[in-house]
Amino acid sequence: MSKTIEVENLVKVYRNGVRAVDGLSFSVDKGEIFGFLGPNGAGKSTTIKILIGLVNPTEGRLLVNGIDITKHTTEIKRATGYASQETAIDDRLTAWENITLQGHYYHLNGREIRTRSEEILRMFDLYERRNDLAETFSGGMLKRLDIAEALIHRPQILFLDEPTLGLDVQTRQVIWTYIERLREEHGMTIFVTTHYMEEADTLCDRVTIIDRGTIKAIDRPEALKAQLGGDVITVSFSANSEPTSVLERIRQIEQVLSIEKNGNGAHRIMVSEEGEKIVPQLFALCEKEGITIDAVSLKKASLDDVYLHYTGHAMRNAEESKETHFKARMMRGKARRK
Ligand SMILES: Nc1ncnc2c1ncn2[C@@H]1O[C@H](COP(=O)(O)OP(=O)(O)OP(=O)(O)O)[C@@H](O)[C@H]1O
Ligand SMILES: [Mg+2]
Q: Which of 64, 85, 190, 307 has its CA 20 to 30 Å from the CA of residue 196?
């Protein structure tokens, strides 16, 4: 399969000294949906901005469509489409005005702009609403319009930086179907960043887990889960039990890889094998320490667990802080425009 993106030892040190990207190497096949999954500040947006020629790398070899990005920025801009993490829509303009403006930005002629805008708005089921102001659009429609705009110059590779951030679950799934259609019907290569596990799991052919500018794991979601091979035991201790000392002893069990407290106050214990044999040991330890267990469950590792294993922190916490940050930013944006 031909490689659309090839990155070797990519490094980005910003002027303030932040090493946002620290030696990434990966490649993306033509027609692949390739995901970057990582917490805040992992270097996802920086990598995208480098790959579309918006930010200069400090070091590294970068080929997009076989072309060296650093030397041929015009070709790269033509070959790639980009929908940034914050939508680029002007909500005082209509959908039609927004998308045609983008066509002018790419110096397309009037006829091209009209035909392509119609085609793309139809593809994203927004044509009927083309004369409505973007400020009347829902979050999901705005994101669709934003992705649509990135396609006006018919790029071969589409970069989507957190295309579903802050959207509800149903709307996220709708966005995925549009993304999948771009690959199915147009053979587009899609590079997507996300912090939603189910998005990476369902949408992406391959997922890269990135943290602090380095790649922790890269493979098909099923392969990542299979490599971990382990089980997850979730334990809820009784509210009036203080489990600190028993947790210490559980940690010493050979097969225990990690223990994390989840959002519901339960403890998630990742074990390398045979979880069903560990559960009785947990009960025995708790009994010895006089700790009561309210509930216990055992399941195979999910992508969430893979993430936790490689980054050492739960994605749920990152998701929450990120959505709060995103919503605050949206509110600030709205207030500014008033
Ligand atoms: N223009 C910049 N100047 C200096 N530092 C920057 C700049 N842009 C990003 N950084 C820093 O580089 C690091 C990586 O940021 P980046 O935006 O690439 O992460 P990210 O994975 O996209 O995070 P998020 O999930 O929050 O979007 C962070 O520490 C960030 O503060
Ligand atoms: Mg980002």
A: 64
Cβ atoms of 238 and 245 within 8 Å: the answer is no
Ligand 2 center–CA 161 separation, angstroms: 7
For the CA of 55, the nearest atom of ligand 1: 1
What DSSP letter does each residue of 206-242 carry, written as one string?
A: EEEEEETTEEEEEE-HHHHHHHH--EEEEEEE-TT--
322 C-alpha to center of ligand 2: Å?
10
Q: For residue 336, is pLDDT > 80?
A: no
Place of tokens 């089921």: 125
Centre of ligand 2 to C-alpha 280, Å, is: 43
Tell me how crowded residue 101 is: count the other CB atoms within 10 A of its CB.
Answer: 15
pTM: 0.80
91 CB burial (10 A radius; 0-12, 13-18, 19+): middle
All domains in the chain, ordered by first residue: 3-224 (3.40.50.300), 230-300 (3.30.70.100)
40 lines ligand 1 (CB under 6 A): yes
pLDDT band at 5 (very low <50, low <70, confident <90, very high): very high
Identify the nearest ligand to the CA of 39 by its number.
1
